Amino acid sequence: MKRIEGLRTQLDAVGYLKSVKKLLGVTYRDLSSLLGLPESVLSRYATGDMLPSVETAQEILKKLEEAYPVAAVVKARLKTYETYLDMSFVNLPEFWRLYEIYLARRFPSLEVDVVLTAAADGIPLAVAAASRFEASLVVAKQYREPGVENYDYTYLREGRPVTLYIPATQIRRGYKVFIVDDIARTGKTLKALVGLCNKAEAHVVGASVLVARRDLNLEVDFPIDVLYTY
């Protein structure tokens, strides 16, 4: 393992530990019992006074993912109302950290040039994905960027036409694109983002949907991960 990969594993283990502690209210006692490590050591990991060895970090990640999978974090933090889903937790840096780690392990060795999302709620997740994949971020908006050529795609949402635009300079022919969508109720936004990629002659290499309806049927020709269904 290259040194930088080992360091990433160490930081991921500490990040996962800190995130579940903050997002789920897990105590050092809980973590100590799960991981078989003293509370004082875990505290020093969390404060940055020390890092676990690469081997210990790998074991920490394995146990934390089994005990506190990201889907369970989403379930615990998601608030469902009759006509509204409260997903404000996606704005927390602790969740970004978990999401980055999740994507890296769900899509290992994936080569990405651009992470694409639609404005506006999916932007924090897309930023986290772009950071992890070391890719540029492109946000499809409902207005044209003036003075430049734009790709556009129009679809119906709740009975009214919606058009998404991206500047043609931001996604070029042959680019490898990873799509991020925070919530998919009908899949129309995801299809619109794919349509924009097709117009740019870019290649969609994967997609991540954080929350989707349980009965949603997404038929695509690229790997897509739905983290949580409701």
- Total of domains: 2
Mean pLDDT: 96
Helices and strands, in order, run as HHHHHEEHEHEEEEHEE
Structural shape: globular
Q: Any idea what the CATH architecture of the largest domain is? A: 3-Layer(aba) Sandwich
From the alpha carbons, calculate the radius of gyration and give it in angstroms: 19 Å
Describe what you observe in this structure.
This protein has 230 residues and is α/β, with parallel strands linked by helices. It has two domains: 3-68, Orthogonal Bundle (434 Repressor (Amino-terminal Domain)), CATH 1.10.260.40; 88-229, Rossmann fold. 43% of the residues lie in helices and 24% in strands. The protein is built from eight helices and nine strands. The strands form three sheets. The protein has a five-stranded parallel beta sheet with strand order 4-3-7-8-9, sandwiched between helices. Strands 1-2 form a two-stranded antiparallel ribbon. Strands 5-6 form a two-stranded antiparallel ribbon. Helix 8 (188-200) links the parallel strand 7 (176-184) and strand 8 (203-212). It is globular. The chain starts with a helix and ends with a strand. The model has no long low-confidence stretch (mean pLDDT 96).
